[in-house]
Amino acid sequence: MAIIKTLNSRVGIEVSYHRIVGINLNYRDKKVVLCVASYISKEKRFNNFEALEVVDIEVPDTDFELFIDEDPRGIAYLWLKENVEGFDESIDDLEKVEEV
Q1: Which of 38, 44, 59, 61 could form a disulfide with 49 if both were Cys (CB 3.0 to 4.6 A apart)?
Q2: Over the stretch 1-60, which tens digit does the pLDDT of each residue have?
Q3: Would residue 100 count as lying in a domain?
């Protein structure tokens, strides 16, 4: 699963394939951190090139409950598309190529 949307990286290079590579759920502090890796393209990702950019995105405490008793990966992608500028109107890549 991934999100396809052309965005500019922090260094000004376009990236178009974005994949959640980590989800940290801290039940004690009610915190969620999503680790998102961005690649130049889907093809580069599957040809074993490294992500051009990897960022941690902190989910507001008020949204912690969304991740409980649900598939955290699926919720994380939905949350990104609804709450992070740039990910709106993106395309879902539901192709399963590898185990996570």
Answers
A1: 44
A2: 999 999 999 999 999 999 999 999 999 999 999 999 999 999 999 999 999 999 999 999
A3: no
98 occurs within a structural domain:
no
Q: How many domains is the chain built from?
A: 1
pTM here? 0.89
Is the CB of residue 47 less than 8 Å from the CB of residue 21?
no
